[in-house]
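Support reply, case 0932

Customer input (verbatim):
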Amino acid sequence: MVIVDLFVSLYQAICFPVYEIPKVKRRDYLALDRKKLSYLTFTQKLNCLYCDYANGVFAYASEIAGRTEWYWCPIKHPDNAQRAHRHYDKFIAYGDGEHFAKKHKEKRLACRACESSCESGTNNQ
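Our regenerated output:
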C-alpha cells in the first residue's frame, strides 16, 4: 500500500505539471478518522486504520489513473468495463474514428480545466 501511495504520488508530481493536468489532492482521499471513535477497541482501530488507508490509497490512485486516461486516451471500451472511474462517462464512444481527433482535443482541454469541478465530480464535459 505504501509503495503504491509513493509511486502514484511521484508519478503525479512529475507528469501532471508537464501535461497541465490538475493534481489530485491526496488529503481528499485519505480519511484516517475512525481511530477517533471511543467505542472501538485498539485492535478495531488498527483494523480501521488499515482499511481507511488502503481504500483511500486505491481511490487516490484510481483518480490519478482516471485523469491520465482522460487526458491520453478518453475512449470507451466496446463493453462497459467494471473498472470504470468517474470520468469514464465523458469519454469518446468506441469506434468513433471520424470525430476522434476533434473530440480528443476537446477532452484534453476539459481535463486540464477540471481543477475545481474535478474534485466534486461535476465536470460533465
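We compared this against your earlier run and they match. Two observations from our side: The chain has a mean pLDDT of 86. The CA atoms of residues 30 and 46 lie 15 Å apart. Please reopen the case if you see a mismatch on your end.
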